[in-house]
Amino acid sequence: MSEQTDPEALAERVRSGDLRLYELEDHADPETAAAARRRFGEGETDADLDAVGAYGFDAADVEANVENLVGGLQVPMGVAGPLPVAGEATDGEFYLPLATTEGALVASVNRGCSTIRAAGGANALVTDRGMTRAPVFRVADVTEAADVVEWVRDSFDALAEAAESTTSHGELQDVEPYVVGRNVYLRFDYDTKDAMGMNMATIATEAAAEVVEEHTPASLVATSGNLCTDKKPAAINAIEGRGRTVTADVTIPREVVEDRLNTTPENVAEVNERKNLVGSAKAGSMGFNAQAANVVAATFLATGQDEAHVVEGSNAITTAEVREGDLHAAISLASLQVGTVGGGTKLPTQSEALDLLGVTGGGDPPGSNADAFAEIVAAGALAGELSLLSALASRHLASAHEELGR
Prior knowledge:
The protein has about 400 residues and is of the alpha+beta class. It has three domains: about 5-60, no CATH class; about 75-130 and about 245-405, 3-hydroxy-3-methylglutaryl-coenzyme A Reductase, Chain A, domain 2; about 135-220, Hydroxymethylglutaryl-CoA reductase, class I/II, NAD/NADP-binding domain (Alpha-Beta Plaits, 2-Layer Sandwich), CATH 3.30.70. The chain has helices spanning about 5-15, 30-45, 105-120, 140-155, 155-165, 200-215, 235-240, 255-260, 265-285, 290-305, 310-315, 350-355, 370-395, 395-405, and strands spanning about 75-85, 90-100, 120-135, 135-140, 170-180, 185-190, 220, 245-250, 315-325, 325-335. Strands 1, 2, 3, 4, 5, 6, 7, 8, 9 and 10 form a ten-stranded mixed beta sheet that branches. α10 packs antiparallel against α13. The longest helix has 26 residues, at about 370-395. The radius of gyration is 24 Å and the shape is globular. It starts with 6 loop residues before the first helix and ends with a helix.
């Protein structure tokens, strides 16, 4: 066996310092390089990486997704549903793929889906869409900052031309300036169609920033000035939105609440008010919900989304009220960042999970698949809210986990 096909020989070269981990693909094919890294890791730590090495993708196909590949991570995936959703982009019944290690989560969401189904289905609607990137520029003083802001507001077409020259899909929708002392932040907002679009927005914004520097005294400090705001809790995302802003609601007849959820509309509404609204306000939370992050995270892992965007995806408000004796419940996710093309959506298991929802790839018209996906996720999050709120209202939360052996 030649060194190029012998993982152990390559691992030994790494141990000796002759090669670095990231250089292995220069000396072997991607599968062999990954195996060599596993052998190296096993030798350095006494770990057994056989399970990590059992994966279902071609190592050569994931070079755009990860560096220093050692293998694959397997997370159990279940389905909840069918979940009936009627929206602007979708109308049908769906089985929601949920990848999780949290026992009872799929069962909880499934109970919510059953309740929504018995109530005739959920409505869902994307009310806004736009991926943002906010570079920060340095100026001499606030007077100069005002000049930059004036130029930006008068020059949208020039900025759009520069930004859109970098992509065949992205469309600049808005540029909102903010001034803080000698700092000028420009929050660029793009319609990225079916892509989540973070990389697209970054590349486009860099091109537009060059135009700003060319025509104003502003100097670019960083392409991201954290006013975007990406992968961090931020009030601006809760207020202005980022990615998809989507809402789902359902009206559940009293008898369905009592039969399926073992409680009453009044009890659910009270728990929601005292827990999700008042309790969250007292905590200074940006998420006024019970467990939206659970559904967002499990769906993201299953479908190849950027898992760090769960931070923004849990930026949600759940409402519940008694209306004519029945329960009206809704969830509004301000900044759900999803895509059906690009990133991890191309991986085999993740692509299959998107197939399960019928939203793989680009939509017709562009953006419709990502809109449909967002509507389904919102309805799934609503199902999770209904189930957990009802478990709390009926004091069954601990017993449910105990019964399922979690």
